[in-house]
Amino acid sequence: MYRERERRVWTGKLWWLAGVAVAFVFPLILSQYYLFVLANIIIMAIVAQGLNTMIGWGAVFSFGQPGFMAFGAYFGAILARELPFLPFPIVIILTAIASALLGLLIGYPCLRLRGFFLAMATFGFSSSIFVLINFLRSLTGGNEGMYAPPPAIGGISFANTTNIFFIVFLIGLLIQFGVSNINRSRTGRAWRAIRDGEIPAASMGINIAKEKIKLFILGSVLAGVGGVLYSYLIGYLQSDFFSIMGLSFFLILVSGGIGTVWGPIIGSFIFMMIPQVFGGMFSQSMNLVYGVILIGFVSLAPGGVYQILGKLQSVVRRGV
Amino acid sequence: MFVELFIDGLSVGSIYALVSVGLVLVFQSTRALNFSHGDFMMISTFVAYALVVQFGVPFLFAIPVVLGFSALLGVVVERFVIRRLMSGSMPAIIMATLGIGYMLQGTASTIWTDDIFAFPRLFPGRFVNIAGVRVTPQSIGVVVTTILVMATLHLFLTRTKLGTGFRALTQNRTAAALMGVPITRMYALAWAIGGVLAAIAGVLLAPTLFLSTGMSEITFTAIMCAIIGGFGKIYGAIIGGYLVGIFSSILPLYIPSDLQAIIPFVLLMVVLFIRPTGILGVKTIKKV
Amino acid sequence: MLKLNSISCFYGKVQAIRDVSIEVPQGSLVSIIGSNGAGKSTILKTISGLLHPRSGTIHFREKEITLTKPEEIVRLGIIHVPEGRLVFPELTVRENLRMGAYCRSDKNEVRRDEERMLETFPILNQREKQVAATLSGGEQQMLAIARGLMASPAILLLDEPSLGLAPVITERVYSFLAELKNRGTTILLVEQNAMMALELSDYAYVLETGSVSIKGTGSELLSNDDVRNLYLGIKVDVTSVNDTIERDYLGGQKDATSK
Amino acid sequence: MDMQPTVPALQLSGVAISFGGIKALDGISLDVNPKEIYAIIGPNGAGKTTAFNIIGGVYQAKAGRIFFNGADITRLQPHAIARLGMGRTFQNLELFSRMTVKENLMAAKHIHTRTRFWSEIVGTRGVRSEEEQAAEDVQNIMSFLDIEKYADASVEDLGFPVQKRIELGRALALRPSLILLDEPAAGLNFVETRDLSETIMAIRNDLGLTVLLIEHDMSMVMSISDRITVLDHGEVIACGAPEEVQANPKVIEAYLGKRRSYAET
What we know:
The complex is a heterotetramer.
Chain B: H1 2-30, H2 37-54, H3 59-85, H4 90-112, E1 128-130, E2 133-135, H5 137-159, H6 161-171, H7 173-178, H8 183-209, H9 218-229, H10 234-250, H11 263-274
Antiparallel strand pairs in B: 1-2
Chain C: E1 2-11, E2 14-24, E3 29-33, H1 40-47, E4 55-60, E5 63-64, H2 70-75, E6 78-81, H3 93-100, H4 107-120, H5 122-126, H6 137-149, E7 155-159, H7 167-182, E8 186-191, H8 194-200, E9 203-208, E10 211-217, H9 218-222, H10 225-232, H11 248-257
Helix pairs in contact in C: 3-6
Chain D: E1 10-19, E2 22-32, E3 37-41, H1 48-55, E4 63-68, E5 71-72, H2 78-83, E6 86-88, H3 101-108, H4 117-122, H5 125-144, H6 160-173, E7 178-182, H7 190-205, E8 210-214, H8 218-224, E9 227-232, E10 235-240, H9 242-247, H10 249-256
Parallel strand pairs in D: 3-8, 3-9, 6-7, 7-8
Antiparallel strand pairs in D: 1-2, 1-4, 4-5, 9-10
Helix pairs in contact in D: 3-6, 5-6
């Protein structure tokens, strides 16, 4: 029994290690362009994962991800610009801490709010961040935007796509590892319990306020980290990059499978592939395509591709 | 200056009020917060633009066509998307309406591109001077039209059998069904009225704001207005709309104009801080 | 006039009522009594079309109405006054009454009926312009019944008219029901308050966990010990139990107490 | 043995609450002794569930105090009360509908596990062993209630009687000293009700819990309860052993109503 368990833990770990190995294969087989796209997919998945924990597990409906993401991107970039000697992992960690504080700051007043009220409050905070970015011109360059320094350690810059891809991939893998651990643990269970019913959850001794704050913090940290990585990938920041992203995360969640650990990654892939597939035909009306896909998933396959894959798998198994 | 901005605020507030009342009517009946409401407004205004500017149809004839189009759009969306999701979760409905918004946006940008268009004024003319205050016929027209529309809506809801039935439905669906109120037709009616109100708002707003696919961003402000007034209350939405309109016009006198965009939100947070249910809202207790 | 033929009904996977057959003749008052959760309200909801039965049929005046929509059932004259009153809280008393007549097109008659209702219920007359939320529980119950009557019902389905009312008010409500009955209104009454309901009933059914366990005329059931036992759980000598009822729960009671 | 006078497991004194001006509870008082099976009965709308919601902290009492094992819990929030050892079930099942049976019960182990967020992210050995301990206890409860075979099923897919047992199991997984059962027999058939009576007796006799229940099935209430309080219109109208309560004319009237002829009116 004990051995069996240890074995499972070890095979689990091996899978993650295999994931790391894959990172070294991609640059060999993919062009720079596709590495860029792949890095972008991972970044979007990280931010969407934050939203996923909030909506899919905790029933905390948030429109705040783009704002949090922009905050992270600007915070990291300004930090690296002003203190160029800071190694980039430190920049990322400091950004994560700052994002956590922001999540706490915004989550706290939102605790009393529920449903639409909460959604609108997060939307408001998010748009306030954009307004502030454009307002604090001396710091952020306002509407014109600002140059974002590449990741660097003590003057050594990792400014090419392959390097950035490695960074993004490893951080993405770490986050995925952490999130799937939380999902299986006490906290994840408490969040899902809150999603399914606040009163019974409270009656089981779960402190709703505390857990919701945790959700807010996790959501904003993931968005903030995603923001920094995005600034590395793009190299230039403008608030518009982020403010137009708002609805993309919902599409990612719905198409991938909301409330599942791998849903955001699948969804992010689908979302980034849509323009590749339909771009030629519908370049003028991508929104139309996004809309049709979003409604299609919500009304026909609310569990997203993740659920469809699960069903296929069980069908195949039964067949064999 | 202050008085002129105040009148400006009334005119902007009228638009917000129209849009948020439509949102609330739709929400009251089908419990769906329609995040595509602003897109209804945008696309109806584009239809109006096409009729009046591109095909030269006189305003008088174009307006009924546009209102009919918008009402029909509401009915179709209710029938084919919302009704299937009504028993589902809140995120599903939010995302479905977001999806409808995307679709309408995409349609509009396909047909008319994302450019900015000048929209003809319903109430043309330059400034008039009333007791030393300069106002445009447009803003007077907007305010007066809104008052007329609201009054009609009020009379419909309180004086007609259909309207009373609608109010009954919003207060208790089961009891309304037991009185013989045709529930599903009422849903369609609510979405149709919502569409009409959005179209009116669009035609009134477009001459000053210009017409573009970006117009639909008004949805979020309108939702905030509705929450400020006490979510789910029609008269609350009107109050919220005017409050936001007036504050966003007057406050830029005293604060940097860059910050104008967050005035509705700040107002929302202040109101919710003082009264968590909004101005006219009442507290509900969840039963277990 | 109204006939339910072995109706079974589910809430999701939960069977709420099982093979229930009930008949309400024209001009009579029939009651369904039983404890909370026995499925009494479900029967009424099934008749008024709020729920559809999984099996069985419902006939009204020889016409099948099993799967008809609520609004059409109302038009047939089957009026359901739901449990918990469900008055429209933000409509005035008069508007509530007017809602009762939603399906009627005879405007002048409706006006006259409105006045008649306000006369019959002086309390409502005093509060004609108030919104219903401001009424007390008893007043709301009166309003709910009056609203039901505004539809000029062929048959009135009343769900727990005494629920949550003080005894004095309950008596007032029941006096009015007696009066209605004397005027010849057909009534199907669901009650927890068995004594009062049975006093008034021509015929009654006892519902226990979803199926009819006892039936008989009102006075028969009033003198039936099992009815008392059902409500208060008083143990009776098993031999004295009426043969017509399979009361297997008595056995269960012994099991549990023998511990 | 403790020779001190026993502290009541639960004590309500003069608890009152009103909703929108209507008094739902009007100063009710009762004492539940440790290891007692105590029933609250009364007609529909008497305020029974409201009483549970006040005890469990979902509503705040307007007046009066509530003591749980001697500690004042009047102003505590639901989660804090649960942590003190009070489990409950709900009138209309409130299961975590999108979780499996095992997860539902594990959610109640939340208060027994202490791991930090950080170690959960990393998935340390401490987290795993704690999870396993909790899972073992949940396993025991599932076998006690005979629901082991549903452990990995989603609760949505199970029948109503099973769901009721799962909810009971979830409350037991808190390892409470007092359990509140809101109409545990509602919707159950005779055989299921009999099993339930036995389970409740076992919860008291074998697990040593105090049980406070609301129930409409009188044969069950009368056969398993040590004492009963009868509520009507938010007030206590009777209190005592089952036989006393059954014989109380006020109770009979509350349930059956007054006999009176209406033919003349």
